[in-house]
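Quick question about two entries, pasted in order.
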Amino acid sequence: MGKRIIRSPARRTSFPDACLLPSRSAETWSCFARQRDDATDYLKRIVGRPGDRIQMVAGVLHINGAPIKHERMVDFTDTSTGERVRQWRETLPNGVSYSTLDLQDNGFLDNTQVYTVPVGHYFMLGDNLDNSTDSRVLAAVGYVPFDNIIGRVERIYYSAQPGENGAPPTPLQDRIGLLVR
Protein backbone atom coordinates (compact mmCIF):
# COMPACT_ATOMS: atom_id res chain seq x y z
CA MET A 1 0.00 0.00 0.00
CA GLY A 2 1.24 3.48 -0.69
CA LYS A 3 1.49 5.24 2.66
CA ARG A 4 3.07 8.58 3.35
CA ILE A 5 3.70 9.28 7.01
CA ILE A 6 4.91 11.91 9.43
CA ARG A 7 7.37 10.49 11.92
CA SER A 8 9.21 11.71 14.95
CA PRO A 9 12.95 11.20 15.15
CA ALA A 10 14.11 8.40 17.40
CA ARG A 11 15.61 9.25 20.74
CA ARG A 12 18.40 6.74 20.67
CA THR A 13 18.45 6.15 24.43
CA SER A 14 14.79 5.29 24.89
CA PHE A 15 12.97 4.91 21.57
CA PRO A 16 12.51 1.11 21.33
CA ASP A 17 11.21 0.91 24.89
CA ALA A 18 8.75 3.70 24.13
CA CYS A 19 7.26 1.51 21.39
CA LEU A 20 6.49 -1.13 23.98
CA LEU A 21 4.85 1.16 26.54
CA PRO A 22 1.07 1.12 26.96
CA SER A 23 -0.57 3.65 24.69
CA ARG A 24 -3.14 6.33 25.42
CA SER A 25 -5.71 4.71 23.12
CA ALA A 26 -6.62 1.34 21.66
CA GLU A 27 -3.90 1.71 19.06
CA THR A 28 -0.28 1.30 20.00
CA TRP A 29 2.78 3.22 18.89
CA SER A 30 4.08 2.06 15.54
CA CYS A 31 7.74 1.96 14.71
CA PHE A 32 9.47 2.92 11.52
CA ALA A 33 12.41 0.63 10.85
CA ARG A 34 14.97 1.01 8.12
CA GLN A 35 15.55 -2.11 6.03
CA ARG A 36 19.01 -3.68 5.70
CA ASP A 37 19.50 -2.26 2.20
CA ASP A 38 19.23 1.26 3.66
CA ALA A 39 17.07 2.30 0.69
CA THR A 40 13.66 0.97 1.77
CA ASP A 41 11.83 1.98 4.93
CA TYR A 42 9.27 -0.28 6.60
CA LEU A 43 6.41 0.36 9.03
CA LYS A 44 6.45 -2.37 11.66
CA ARG A 45 5.79 -2.86 15.36
CA ILE A 46 8.50 -3.81 17.82
CA VAL A 47 7.38 -7.01 19.55
CA GLY A 48 10.73 -8.38 20.71
CA ARG A 49 13.71 -6.88 22.51
CA PRO A 50 17.24 -8.27 22.88
CA GLY A 51 17.12 -11.72 24.49
CA ASP A 52 13.40 -12.32 23.84
CA ARG A 53 12.27 -15.56 22.23
CA ILE A 54 9.63 -14.93 19.55
CA GLN A 55 7.53 -17.55 17.76
CA MET A 56 4.26 -17.78 15.85
CA VAL A 57 2.16 -20.84 16.77
CA ALA A 58 -1.09 -21.39 14.82
CA GLY A 59 -1.12 -17.69 13.92
CA VAL A 60 -0.67 -16.46 17.50
CA LEU A 61 2.41 -14.53 18.62
CA HIS A 62 4.32 -16.12 21.51
CA ILE A 63 6.85 -14.07 23.48
CA ASN A 64 9.26 -15.98 25.72
CA GLY A 65 7.14 -19.13 25.43
CA ALA A 66 3.80 -17.53 26.34
CA PRO A 67 1.01 -16.66 23.89
CA ILE A 68 -0.12 -13.05 23.85
CA LYS A 69 -3.77 -12.17 24.29
CA HIS A 70 -5.44 -12.71 20.89
CA GLU A 71 -9.12 -11.66 20.61
CA ARG A 72 -11.39 -11.77 17.56
CA MET A 73 -12.73 -8.43 16.32
CA VAL A 74 -15.25 -7.46 13.66
CA ASP A 75 -13.90 -8.25 10.19
CA PHE A 76 -11.93 -5.56 8.39
CA THR A 77 -13.67 -4.60 5.14
CA ASP A 78 -11.59 -3.22 2.29
CA THR A 79 -13.56 -0.13 1.24
CA SER A 80 -12.45 -0.33 -2.39
CA THR A 81 -13.10 -4.05 -3.03
CA GLY A 82 -15.59 -5.00 -0.31
CA GLU A 83 -13.35 -7.92 0.67
CA ARG A 84 -13.66 -8.98 4.31
CA VAL A 85 -10.60 -10.07 6.30
CA ARG A 86 -10.48 -11.51 9.81
CA GLN A 87 -9.22 -8.98 12.32
CA TRP A 88 -7.73 -9.62 15.77
CA ARG A 89 -6.95 -7.47 18.80
CA GLU A 90 -3.53 -8.46 20.14
CA THR A 91 -2.25 -7.37 23.52
CA LEU A 92 1.42 -7.61 24.45
CA PRO A 93 2.45 -8.62 28.00
CA ASN A 94 2.95 -4.96 28.98
CA GLY A 95 -0.59 -3.97 27.96
CA VAL A 96 0.12 -2.48 24.52
CA SER A 97 -2.79 -3.39 22.23
CA TYR A 98 -3.25 -3.18 18.45
CA SER A 99 -5.23 -4.80 15.64
CA THR A 100 -3.89 -7.29 13.08
CA LEU A 101 -5.27 -8.91 9.93
CA ASP A 102 -5.38 -12.65 9.24
CA LEU A 103 -5.93 -13.57 5.58
CA GLN A 104 -5.80 -17.36 5.90
CA ASP A 105 -5.50 -20.26 8.33
CA ASN A 106 -2.16 -22.06 8.38
CA GLY A 107 -0.42 -19.46 6.24
CA PHE A 108 3.29 -19.65 5.54
CA LEU A 109 4.15 -17.42 8.53
CA ASP A 110 1.54 -18.82 10.98
CA ASN A 111 3.94 -21.42 12.43
CA THR A 112 7.58 -20.45 12.76
CA GLN A 113 10.77 -21.46 14.43
CA VAL A 114 11.72 -19.83 17.73
CA TYR A 115 13.65 -16.63 17.04
CA THR A 116 16.01 -15.47 19.80
CA VAL A 117 16.57 -11.73 19.41
CA PRO A 118 20.31 -10.95 19.49
CA VAL A 119 21.88 -8.23 21.61
CA GLY A 120 21.47 -4.79 20.03
CA HIS A 121 18.57 -5.90 17.81
CA TYR A 122 14.76 -5.87 17.81
CA PHE A 123 12.06 -8.11 16.35
CA MET A 124 9.47 -6.39 14.16
CA LEU A 125 6.05 -7.60 12.97
CA GLY A 126 3.67 -6.11 10.44
CA ASP A 127 -0.08 -5.77 11.01
CA ASN A 128 -1.02 -8.08 8.12
CA LEU A 129 0.29 -11.30 9.65
CA ASP A 130 -0.06 -13.41 6.48
CA ASN A 131 1.34 -10.82 4.09
CA SER A 132 4.17 -8.96 5.80
CA THR A 133 7.86 -8.99 5.10
CA ASP A 134 9.07 -8.57 8.66
CA SER A 135 11.55 -10.09 11.13
CA ARG A 136 10.09 -13.58 10.57
CA VAL A 137 11.64 -13.47 7.11
CA LEU A 138 15.32 -13.60 8.08
CA ALA A 139 16.66 -13.35 4.52
CA ALA A 140 14.71 -10.15 3.81
CA VAL A 141 14.40 -8.25 7.11
CA GLY A 142 15.43 -10.42 10.03
CA TYR A 143 16.47 -8.85 13.31
CA VAL A 144 16.56 -5.06 13.09
CA PRO A 145 19.67 -3.38 14.55
CA PHE A 146 18.96 -0.61 17.02
CA ASP A 147 20.80 1.89 14.78
CA ASN A 148 18.34 1.18 11.95
CA ILE A 149 15.31 2.31 13.93
CA ILE A 150 14.74 5.84 12.72
CA GLY A 151 11.49 7.06 14.25
CA ARG A 152 7.97 6.55 15.55
CA VAL A 153 4.99 7.05 13.26
CA GLU A 154 2.96 10.13 14.22
CA ARG A 155 0.40 10.48 11.44
CA ILE A 156 -0.54 8.94 8.09
CA TYR A 157 -0.99 11.85 5.72
CA TYR A 158 -1.71 9.73 2.61
CA SER A 159 -2.63 6.11 2.03
CA ALA A 160 -3.66 4.36 -1.18
CA GLN A 161 -4.39 0.89 -2.41
CA PRO A 162 -2.44 -0.11 -5.53
CA GLY A 163 -4.49 -0.08 -8.74
CA GLU A 164 -5.12 -3.26 -10.67
CA ASN A 165 -4.02 -3.85 -14.28
CA GLY A 166 -2.14 -0.56 -14.52
CA ALA A 167 -4.92 1.56 -12.99
CA PRO A 168 -3.85 4.40 -10.72
CA PRO A 169 -3.88 3.85 -6.94
CA THR A 170 -7.12 4.40 -5.03
CA PRO A 171 -6.79 6.76 -2.05
CA LEU A 172 -8.00 5.26 1.24
CA GLN A 173 -9.98 8.23 2.54
CA ASP A 174 -10.51 6.79 6.02
CA ARG A 175 -6.73 6.64 6.63
CA ILE A 176 -5.71 10.06 5.32
CA GLY A 177 -4.73 12.27 8.24
CA LEU A 178 -5.04 9.40 10.73
CA LEU A 179 -3.20 10.11 13.98
CA VAL A 180 -1.17 7.07 15.07
CA ARG A 181 -0.88 6.74 18.85
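Here is the second entry:
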Amino acid sequence: MNPATVPRVSGNCGGCKMGDGRDAAIIPKWKRHLARMLVGASFLCALGTLAALAVIDYADVAKRAGGHRPEQSVASMAALRNDWEVAEFIYDSGTSTGFGGRRNIPGFVIRLPKSARQRPEELQSGLQVYSRLSTDTGCIVDIVRNPRGAGGTLWAPRLRMPTTPVASDPCHGSVFDLARGGEVIFGPAPRPLDRFTFEVRGDKVVITGFVKSKDPEVSLRNHSHAR
Protein backbone atom coordinates (compact mmCIF):
# COMPACT_ATOMS: atom_id res chain seq x y z
CA MET A 1 0.00 0.00 0.00
CA ASN A 2 1.21 3.42 -0.92
CA PRO A 3 1.84 5.40 2.33
CA ALA A 4 0.60 8.50 0.62
CA THR A 5 -2.90 6.99 0.35
CA VAL A 6 -3.18 6.14 4.09
CA PRO A 7 -5.11 8.83 6.04
CA ARG A 8 -3.04 10.46 8.71
CA VAL A 9 -4.27 9.94 12.28
CA SER A 10 -3.22 12.27 15.03
CA GLY A 11 -2.59 10.80 18.44
CA ASN A 12 -2.71 7.17 19.50
CA CYS A 13 -5.94 5.32 20.29
CA GLY A 14 -4.26 2.13 21.36
CA GLY A 15 -5.04 0.12 18.24
CA CYS A 16 -8.63 1.33 17.74
CA LYS A 17 -9.96 0.57 14.25
CA MET A 18 -12.62 2.16 12.12
CA GLY A 19 -15.14 0.04 10.19
CA ASP A 20 -12.85 -0.06 7.18
CA GLY A 21 -9.88 -1.16 9.26
CA ARG A 22 -8.29 2.26 9.57
CA ASP A 23 -7.02 3.61 12.91
CA ALA A 24 -9.71 5.71 14.65
CA ALA A 25 -8.83 9.27 15.49
CA ILE A 26 -9.02 10.15 19.18
CA ILE A 27 -12.07 12.24 20.18
CA PRO A 28 -10.87 15.60 21.43
CA LYS A 29 -10.92 15.98 25.22
CA TRP A 30 -13.32 18.94 25.16
CA LYS A 31 -15.88 16.86 23.25
CA ARG A 32 -15.68 14.07 25.82
CA HIS A 33 -16.21 16.58 28.66
CA LEU A 34 -19.15 18.11 26.81
CA ALA A 35 -20.77 14.71 26.33
CA ARG A 36 -20.43 13.91 30.04
CA MET A 37 -21.92 17.26 31.01
CA LEU A 38 -24.90 16.69 28.71
CA VAL A 39 -25.53 13.22 30.16
CA GLY A 40 -25.33 14.58 33.73
CA ALA A 41 -27.62 17.49 32.94
CA SER A 42 -30.18 15.13 31.39
CA PHE A 43 -30.13 12.95 34.51
CA LEU A 44 -30.61 15.92 36.84
CA CYS A 45 -33.41 17.24 34.65
CA ALA A 46 -35.19 13.88 34.87
CA LEU A 47 -34.87 13.82 38.66
CA GLY A 48 -36.21 17.38 38.89
CA THR A 49 -39.20 16.45 36.75
CA LEU A 50 -40.03 13.47 38.97
CA ALA A 51 -39.73 15.59 42.12
CA ALA A 52 -41.99 18.27 40.66
CA LEU A 53 -44.61 15.67 39.73
CA ALA A 54 -44.51 14.28 43.29
CA VAL A 55 -44.99 17.76 44.79
CA ILE A 56 -47.86 18.53 42.42
CA ASP A 57 -49.51 15.21 43.23
CA TYR A 58 -49.24 15.77 47.01
CA ALA A 59 -50.52 19.35 46.67
CA ASP A 60 -53.49 18.06 44.71
CA VAL A 61 -54.28 15.46 47.38
CA ALA A 62 -54.02 18.10 50.12
CA LYS A 63 -56.27 20.45 48.17
CA ARG A 64 -58.91 17.80 47.64
CA ALA A 65 -58.70 16.87 51.33
CA GLY A 66 -59.31 20.49 52.31
CA GLY A 67 -55.89 20.74 53.98
CA HIS A 68 -56.84 18.26 56.73
CA ARG A 69 -54.93 15.21 57.86
CA PRO A 70 -56.13 11.91 56.40
CA GLU A 71 -58.95 10.28 58.34
CA GLN A 72 -58.31 6.77 59.60
CA SER A 73 -60.34 4.16 61.45
CA VAL A 74 -58.17 2.96 64.34
CA ALA A 75 -60.31 0.93 66.73
CA SER A 76 -63.60 -0.85 67.25
CA MET A 77 -65.99 0.15 70.03
CA ALA A 78 -66.52 -3.55 70.69
CA ALA A 79 -62.93 -3.74 71.93
CA LEU A 80 -63.43 -0.79 74.31
CA ARG A 81 -66.46 -1.80 76.35
CA ASN A 82 -64.87 -1.81 79.80
CA ASP A 83 -63.20 1.01 81.75
CA TRP A 84 -59.48 1.44 81.08
CA GLU A 85 -59.46 -0.86 78.08
CA VAL A 86 -56.86 0.27 75.52
CA ALA A 87 -56.57 -0.16 71.75
CA GLU A 88 -53.18 0.74 70.29
CA PHE A 89 -52.70 1.83 66.66
CA ILE A 90 -50.34 3.46 64.17
CA TYR A 91 -51.71 6.58 62.46
CA ASP A 92 -50.44 7.37 58.96
CA SER A 93 -50.39 11.17 58.86
CA GLY A 94 -49.53 11.30 55.17
CA THR A 95 -46.52 13.54 55.85
CA SER A 96 -43.66 13.86 58.33
CA THR A 97 -44.14 17.62 58.61
CA GLY A 98 -45.06 18.72 62.13
CA PHE A 99 -44.58 15.31 63.72
CA GLY A 100 -40.91 15.45 64.64
CA GLY A 101 -39.91 13.88 61.34
CA ARG A 102 -42.38 11.03 61.73
CA ARG A 103 -45.05 10.03 59.27
CA ASN A 104 -46.44 7.08 61.26
CA ILE A 105 -47.58 8.17 64.72
CA PRO A 106 -48.18 5.53 67.40
CA GLY A 107 -51.27 6.18 69.48
CA PHE A 108 -53.89 4.55 71.66
CA VAL A 109 -57.61 4.80 72.38
CA ILE A 110 -58.61 4.41 76.03
CA ARG A 111 -62.03 3.89 77.63
CA LEU A 112 -62.33 6.24 80.62
CA PRO A 113 -64.50 5.69 83.68
CA LYS A 114 -67.05 8.43 84.38
CA SER A 115 -64.90 9.89 87.16
CA ALA A 116 -62.05 10.57 84.69
CA ARG A 117 -64.06 12.19 81.90
CA GLN A 118 -63.32 15.92 81.62
CA ARG A 119 -63.28 17.10 78.01
CA PRO A 120 -66.43 17.32 75.85
CA GLU A 121 -65.41 14.39 73.65
CA GLU A 122 -64.78 12.28 76.76
CA LEU A 123 -68.18 13.10 78.23
CA GLN A 124 -69.88 12.27 74.94
CA SER A 125 -68.05 9.08 73.94
CA GLY A 126 -66.33 7.90 77.12
CA LEU A 127 -63.09 7.74 75.14
CA GLN A 128 -59.85 9.63 74.73
CA VAL A 129 -57.22 9.18 72.02
CA TYR A 130 -53.59 9.99 72.79
CA SER A 131 -50.29 9.97 70.96
CA ARG A 132 -47.79 7.51 72.39
CA LEU A 133 -44.89 9.90 71.77
CA SER A 134 -43.50 11.40 74.96
CA THR A 135 -43.56 15.21 74.93
CA ASP A 136 -40.10 15.13 76.49
CA THR A 137 -38.01 12.74 74.39
CA GLY A 138 -40.30 11.54 71.60
CA CYS A 139 -39.85 8.00 72.91
CA ILE A 140 -42.86 5.70 72.70
CA VAL A 141 -44.55 5.57 76.10
CA ASP A 142 -45.67 2.36 77.78
CA ILE A 143 -49.16 1.94 79.23
CA VAL A 144 -48.76 0.90 82.87
CA ARG A 145 -52.09 -0.42 84.16
CA ASN A 146 -51.00 -0.84 87.77
CA PRO A 147 -48.47 1.90 88.58
CA ARG A 148 -48.12 0.78 92.19
CA GLY A 149 -47.42 -2.80 91.24
CA ALA A 150 -44.13 -4.42 90.33
CA GLY A 151 -42.55 -4.63 86.90
CA GLY A 152 -42.83 -2.39 83.88
CA THR A 153 -40.65 0.57 82.89
CA LEU A 154 -41.85 2.96 85.57
CA TRP A 155 -39.00 4.98 87.10
CA ALA A 156 -41.09 7.01 89.53
CA PRO A 157 -41.55 6.07 93.20
CA ARG A 158 -44.51 3.73 93.09
CA LEU A 159 -46.07 4.90 96.33
CA ARG A 160 -46.41 8.36 94.78
CA MET A 161 -48.24 6.97 91.77
CA PRO A 162 -52.03 6.84 91.29
CA THR A 163 -53.86 3.53 91.40
CA THR A 164 -55.20 4.07 87.88
CA PRO A 165 -53.30 3.56 84.57
CA VAL A 166 -50.51 5.91 83.52
CA ALA A 167 -48.28 6.31 80.47
CA SER A 168 -44.55 5.99 81.22
CA ASP A 169 -41.61 7.30 79.17
CA PRO A 170 -38.93 4.56 79.28
CA CYS A 171 -36.20 6.98 78.15
CA HIS A 172 -36.30 9.82 80.73
CA GLY A 173 -38.89 8.55 83.19
CA SER A 174 -41.74 11.03 82.67
CA VAL A 175 -45.14 9.77 83.80
CA PHE A 176 -48.49 10.93 82.35
CA ASP A 177 -51.72 10.47 84.32
CA LEU A 178 -54.39 9.08 82.01
CA ALA A 179 -57.12 9.83 84.56
CA ARG A 180 -56.24 13.54 84.46
CA GLY A 181 -56.03 14.34 80.77
CA GLY A 182 -52.53 12.96 80.25
CA GLU A 183 -50.97 15.49 82.64
CA VAL A 184 -47.35 15.13 83.70
CA ILE A 185 -47.11 13.85 87.27
CA PHE A 186 -43.44 12.90 87.30
CA GLY A 187 -40.28 13.63 85.33
CA PRO A 188 -39.02 16.32 82.93
CA ALA A 189 -41.75 16.31 80.25
CA PRO A 190 -42.85 19.94 79.67
CA ARG A 191 -46.50 19.29 78.83
CA PRO A 192 -49.23 16.62 78.70
CA LEU A 193 -49.50 13.96 76.03
CA ASP A 194 -50.61 15.14 72.61
CA ARG A 195 -54.05 14.00 71.48
CA PHE A 196 -55.89 13.03 68.34
CA THR A 197 -59.26 14.48 67.46
CA PHE A 198 -61.72 11.73 66.68
CA GLU A 199 -65.30 10.76 65.95
CA VAL A 200 -67.26 7.61 66.75
CA ARG A 201 -68.96 6.42 63.57
CA GLY A 202 -71.06 3.37 64.19
CA ASP A 203 -68.71 0.84 65.76
CA LYS A 204 -65.55 2.58 64.59
CA VAL A 205 -63.28 5.18 66.21
CA VAL A 206 -62.09 7.43 63.38
CA ILE A 207 -59.12 9.81 63.69
CA THR A 208 -59.86 13.23 62.18
CA GLY A 209 -56.82 15.29 63.24
CA PHE A 210 -54.01 15.90 65.69
CA VAL A 211 -53.84 18.31 68.66
CA LYS A 212 -50.57 19.40 70.22
CA SER A 213 -51.07 19.81 73.96
CA LYS A 214 -50.39 23.05 75.82
CA ASP A 215 -48.78 23.57 79.19
CA PRO A 216 -51.00 22.12 81.93
CA GLU A 217 -53.26 24.53 83.80
CA VAL A 218 -52.36 22.81 87.05
CA SER A 219 -48.95 21.21 87.29
CA LEU A 220 -48.90 17.96 89.22
CA ARG A 221 -45.30 17.12 88.43
CA ASN A 222 -43.46 15.41 91.30
CA HIS A 223 -46.47 15.70 93.60
CA SER A 224 -47.81 12.71 95.47
CA HIS A 225 -51.32 11.39 94.84
CA ALA A 226 -53.85 10.35 97.38
CA ARG A 227 -56.52 8.19 95.83
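Reply: The first helix runs from residue 29 to 64. The radius of gyration is 32 Å. Hope that helps.
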